[in-house]
């Protein structure tokens, strides 16, 4: 498997939520599982490999937004073909700026 975000997501068939990770994601930063899932299907969705936190399993970080426009950072891994969100929170100032730059570029050139 390549160390980029596109490879594992191309084979994804759904999400892996259980009694362990769903409440943890909500309790820490108030991001609901449904909001996390929405971000995976909205453009732009910016994924980067998180080599610093990938000792036991590969992890990725993503910037995206919910259907309501809430901008979120997601940390996830793949469990087989299922996406398992490990953490989610609203983007910080630096992340919002980066996401806005990418949004502007993709609006001017949708092939990026």
Descriptive account of the structure:
With about 110 residues, the chain is α+β, with helices and mostly antiparallel strands. It is built from four helices and five strands; from the N terminus they run H-E-H-H-E-E-E-E-H. It has helices at about 5-10, 20-30, 35-40, 95-110, and strands spanning about 15, 45-50, 60-65, 70-80, 80-90. The chain has a five-stranded mixed β-sheet. The longest helix is centred in the last third of the chain and has 16 residues, at about 95-110. The mean pLDDT is about 90.
Residue-averaged pLDDT, rounded? 90
Task: Please trace the helix and strand order, writing H or E for each element.
Answer: HEHHEEEEH
Report on the biggest sheet: 5 strands, mixed
Given helix and strand content, the structural type is alpha+beta
Radius of gyration: 14 Å
Shape: globular
What ranges have pLDDT less than 50 throughout 5 or more consecutive residues? none
Index terms:
single chain; 112 residues; five-stranded mixed sheet; 34% helix; 5 strands; 4 helices; alpha+beta
Brief summary:
This protein has 112 residues and is of the alpha+beta class. 34% of the residues lie in helices and 27% in strands.
Secondary-structure map:
Layout: H1 6-10, E1 14-15, H2 21-29, H3 33-40, E2 46-49, E3 60-65, E4 71-79, E5 82-90, H4 93-108
Parallel strand pairs: 1-5
Antiparallel strand pairs: 2-3, 3-4, 4-5
């Amino acid at each position: 498997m390549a160390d980029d975000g596109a490879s594992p997501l191309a084979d994804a068939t759904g999400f892996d939520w259980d009694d362990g990770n769903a409440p943890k994601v909500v309790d820490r930063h108030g991001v609901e599982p449904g909001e996390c899932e929405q971000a995976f299907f909205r453009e732009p969705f910016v994924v980067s490999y998180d080599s610093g936190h990938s000792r036991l399993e590969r992890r990725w970080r993503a910037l995206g937004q919910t259907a309501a426009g809430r901008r979120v950072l997601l940390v996830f891994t793949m469990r087989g073909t299922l996406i398992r969100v490990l953490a989610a929170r609203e983007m910080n100032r630096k992340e919002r700026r980066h996401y806005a730059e990418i949004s502007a570029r993709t609006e001017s050139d949708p092939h990026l």
